[in-house]
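User: quick one, sequence for these tokens?
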């Protein structure tokens, strides 16, 4: 009986840590739009310094670190694997076929297992970043 309980506890521990690496994004926007060649992506950050560097890249038109970007190909609920040590994320949208995103969300803290709803009114123009004190 003790072995059974020990095995059960070990399985419970492994299943809890396995699910802790995912979040769910409920993309309620219309992006990506195929006919406009729009794209949508998650940008991950480990530290606040990573967030500041990503903000600077957008403000100054520098290419984003592709290792921090995870493209999304559809609307609706998506289960996303959180990269190792990532503590924050934001959504980037290219509403047209351009090099840099023209819409984004604020940075959000990662809470494993949480469902994040993304609505179109949460997306703000990237050009507002330069005047927002980011």
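Assistant:
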């Amino acid at each position: 009986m003790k072995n059974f309980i020990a095995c059960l506890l070990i399985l419970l521990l492994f299943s809890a840590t396995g699910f802790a690496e995912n979040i769910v994004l409920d993309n309620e926007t219309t992006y990506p739009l195929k006919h406009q060649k729009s794209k949508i992506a998650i940008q991950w950050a480990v530290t606040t310094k990573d967030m500041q560097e990503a903000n600077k890249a957008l403000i100054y038109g520098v290419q984003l670190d592709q290792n921090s970007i995870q493209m999304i190909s559809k609307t609706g609920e998506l289960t996303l694997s959180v990269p190792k040590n990532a503590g924050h994320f934001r959504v980037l949208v290219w509403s047209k076929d351009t090099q840099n995103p023209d819409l984004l969300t604020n940075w959000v803290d990662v809470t494993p297992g949480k469902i994040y709803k993304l609505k179109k009114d949460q997306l703000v123009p990237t050009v507002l970043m330069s005047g927002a004190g980011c």
